[in-house]
Predict the 3D structure of the following.
Amino acid sequence: MEKLFLPVLLGTNRKQRNSIHPAKWLVGEMEKRSEIETRLFDVAEFALPQDDYGQEIKHLFPEWRDAIIRADGLVIVTPEYNHGYPGPLKAVLDLLLREYVHKAVAFVGVSATLWGGTRVIEALVTTVRELGLAVTFSDLNFPKVQNTFDAEGKLLDPAVEKRARGFLDELVWMSRTLKWGRENVPSKFHQGPIV
Ligand SMILES: Cc1cc2nc3c(=O)[nH]c(=O)nc-3n(C[C@H](O)[C@H](O)[C@H](O)COP(=O)(O)O)c2cc1C
């Protein structure tokens, strides 16, 4: 079967961020699977201007745009900041619109507490729905992330591996099904080039 392109977006630019460990670890797990091609995008590497916003500046980020046009789905790795999402993550997501339509999105929630980012994921669902993305129903949560990885990013809790497999299985199913739909079921969103 054709490979699915499923980029991963790390949603915080905080210097001491622990979320980088689950993001990098998950990319490694995805790279082990023959049906997935992936690439890590990091909001810290987007030079977002202070004085402009949204689709008008998407031309400043051609690699991101090309990746989302080619993508079959997206993984968003996000920490929970005061029960919400980091501002830079929202700013990066808001760069594009039609590029996302009828593609799958899966969430990885990260927190230092017991809840593993469940509240930030719920907060993001309404946003990604407006972007035209279709949300999977298997999240991957990393509660107490500081105890789940060591300082070098080595996974300390092997139970995560099974949960990640189920999370990726669901994302692959959704992504493949939507890919078939985009290619075979007529929709005004899939006619002509995305400008
Ligand atoms: C501004 C800010 C707000 C935070 N708010 C929450 C929160 O609402 N719930 C929570 O579980 N953890 C919260 N945390 C702690 C994070 O869960 C913790 O930093 C964890 O390591 C994931 O975020 P990181 O990738 O920035 O490290 C907050 C951290 C910051 C910096």
Notes: The domain at 4-190 is CATH 3.40.50.360 (Rossmann fold).
